[in-house]
Structures are given as structure tokens and as C-alpha cells.
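G., the chain you wanted modeled:
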Amino acid sequence: MEITDIPEGHRSGFVAIAGRPNVGKSTLINAFLGQPVAAVSPRPQTTRHRQLGILTLPTTQAIFIDTPGIHKPRHKLGEQMNANALEVLEDADLLLVMFDLSRFPTEDDQRVADRIKALNPSPPTLVVLNKIDLVPPDELINRQAAFKTLLPDIEMYAISSTRGDNRDQLLQHILKQLPSGPRYYPEEEVTDTYQRDIAADLIRAAGLKLLRDEVPHCIAIRIDEYKERNQQGAYIAATLFVERESQKGIVIGKGGSMLRKIGTMARQDIEAMSGRKVYLELRVKVLSGWRNDERALKRMGFSGTGRYH
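Predicted structure as C-alpha cells:
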């Protein structure tokens, strides 16, 4: 990566966000950047791998690292997603540990806290208690106290990634914690991820949103074609992989109705991300047991992504 000239007193750094699935890590990064670069859905485990969200200000550059949710793995896919998340934490200049304040701590929250305590060396760390907007006011103190026991010596911020409660205050505190450093990325870049990879994540997120509990986490996406068409936008062809024939029928829907809904939602999200028109063509195939197939996981982008420094 090329390091550009910077003004005197410039601060920069890599800010990793860790937590169990579905606590709002991707939503927070998108809110900080003011645009979607990380796929979001109500389903856990939408994020496949680490992804950067780059916020460049006149005297600061914060590179946020969105990581898969840390959880108890039940297959090789889960093991790989955990490995992808843990790989980046020790190298971070600042670590945000995020919990969902709308629920009391879960086993996965305790698992996250244990992993953070085991880091050696341990980077500067903040605890972010998200979804304060979903907590009854008379429950707030009890919820905060419950999470305080997980990481008692770390400063906490209670926020709402969606409504915005205390979000700007958290961002200002993050920026002040960054070390002196160069501008690692050009001002116009907001992510290091190729648009075709973001498109794959957005298609998968659309499927998870619309299918809910019917096909939990059994969808993988392969981008088969991604062609620019000048003034006409982009053409994208993608394959949705599921593990069983019964799941294929659910994803396609009666007369192709569900697949059209997934395509419409994904196309709109991809257009919002890319700022141009998109023609999206989807098909569905069965790949039995792909979540426990290391070769299949690698082909579909679930393999390790390496360090970011």
C-alpha cells in the first residue's frame, strides 16, 4: 500500500471491531462512513471476512475493520469465520469490543470477552454497548452492569448505531485515541474491498433478510461475471449455492418469486453502494455440504484474508 504525504500532526490507525454475530458492527461502520460498504441483515453471520471502512478527515484517517462475529463454531465455515475475526485483533491500533445491550450477556458474549482477555499484546480497547434504543430506561443500569462484569477494567460507551445516540461522541473519542501516523489510503477510497466482493456480500445479505429462518446460513454467493457497460452501468451474474434440493426450492420460490425479490433488494443495495445502474442476474445451485468443504470455502471467499498492515 502506498503511503501518501500528510499534514503535520496527522493521526491514523486501524480500528478493529469485535463481537458476537449480529451486535451491529457493520451497521456502525456504515453509519460512520455515511454510506453502505459492509453488508447488513437481521441474520447473524452476514459478514464473511474482514473488510475495511476508511474514514478520511483533514487531519485524521481511521481505518475500521469489520470482522465476522465470534461464536461457537458448528462447522468449518464457523471455524474459518472465527479465525478471520481473531486474526486481525492483535495488530489493531484500537480495538472496539461490541455487545448488544438489548439482551443480557450470552455465552458468545462471554466467549468474546475471554478472547479479548487472552490477547497478548493487547491493543488499547473500548467497550461499545450497542442498541441502547431498544432498552427500557429503567433497565439501562442493570444491563450496563451485567456487561461491565465481562471486561470490568475497560471504558464503556452506550450507543445506538441506527438512531445515533452517542454515536458521534464515540467517533470523536476514537479519533483522539489514534496514534500519529500517515495517510494509508487515498482520500476518495472508502474500502479496500473490490466492488464485486461487496456485491456478493449484499446479495447474501438480501437472501438472509428475505428468507429469515428458512435457510439459515446455508447460502453462499459466487460472482460469475462483473462487467462494466460504460454509461449503461454494470452487468453482474451470480450463483447462489445452497446445501440441499429443498433449500433450492425455497430460494427460488413459486414461479421464481423469491429469487426475484432477492435480486431486486440486492440490486438496489448494489446501486446504492456503487452509485450507478446495475443489471443483476441470479441463479441457484446445490453444493452439498459446502460449509464443511475447505476447498469450497476457499473458492467462495471464506478463507483467511491476511494481515492489513
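Residues 195-299 form a domain with the GMP Synthetase; Chain A, domain 3 fold (CATH 3.30.300.20).

Shout if anything looks off.
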